Amino acid sequence: MTRNAAAAPSHLLYLHGFRSSPRSFKAERLRQWLAANRPELHWWCPQLPPSPAAALAMIEHGLAAWPAGRFAVCGSSLGGFYATVVAERHGCRAVVMNPAVEPARDLAAHIGEQTGWHDPAEHFFFRPEFVDELRALAVPAVTRAERYLAIVATGDELLDWREMSARYPGATLRLIEGSDHALSDFDDHIPHLLKFLNLCD
Questions:
Q1: Cβ neighbours for 65, distance < 8 A, ≥ 6 positions apart
Q2: Could you give the C-alpha distances from 112 to 67, 118, 178, in angstroms and in order?
Q3: Counting beta carbons within 10 angstroms of the beta carbon of residue 109, is it exposed (0 to 12), middle (13 to 18) or buried (19 or more)?
């Protein structure tokens, strides 16, 4: 089934990035649009635990009750890495935004106590074994590239846009000149995300 012929998903999973939360600007903007325009769609944006293995276990537990073939996933940064794992396991469509492609390598420098981005009073400890968990979760290469939309900003100050783009060969690529890791101009990209998922005309 081609993307254009695919039915709109009835369920959408959003996965936030490292140190982020369901209060993510992008998650909130997308949730608000869907609530106003597609209220029948089931939205889930969980607070992910620091352990990658625990995060994927939580995700899989939630997806177990969802209808096969009727859900899609969006993910930003580390959430984009997780979204890729989910898409490869379940064959669903995925939108990845400035996705982490080598998080085991990049997050090895962040072992130790961390604070939440949206609430500095929230603390968690990123443990050395979490790097091994990330390494174990990594997929060798994406398959069925047509099910992916990669939104990548050349102005990302944390991740290399060339590396992100190369991770999704053959996928629909929206390469943004400038912008930043957080995609502060996310409102400009929501229509492309929605169209890819067949949630709007």
A1: none
A2: 38, 18, 31
A3: exposed
pTM of the model: 0.93
Would 2 be classed as within a structural domain? Answer: no
Q: What is the pLDDT of residues 114-144, one digit of tens each?
A: 776 666 767 777 889 999 999 999 999 999 9
pLDDT at 1 over 70: no
- Number of neighbouring beta carbons within 10 Å of residue 105: 12
Higher pLDDT, 1 or 22: 22
Number of domains in the chain: 1
Q: What is the CATH number of the domain that holds 94?
A: 3.40.50.1820
Flag whether 31 is in a domain.
Answer: yes
Q: How far apart are CA 138 and CA 85, in angstroms?
A: 7
Q: Specify whether the backbone of 198 is left (phi greater than 0), alpha (psi in -120 to 50) or beta.
A: left
What is the 3-state composition of the chain as percent helix, strand, coil, each rounded to the nearest 5? 40, 20, 45
3-state secondary structure 130-174: HHHHHHHHCCCCCCCHHHEEEEEECCCCCCCHHHHHHHCCCCEEE
Q: Could you list the residue range(s) of the whole structural domain that residue 108 is in?
A: 11-196
Q: What percent of the chain has pLDDT over 90?
A: 84
Spatial distance between the Cα atoms of 28 and 45, rounded to a whole number of angstroms: 10
> What's at 93, amino acid-wise?
R
Q: Is residue 17 part of a domain?
A: yes
The answer to whether the beta carbons of residues 126 and 111 sit under 8 Å apart is yes
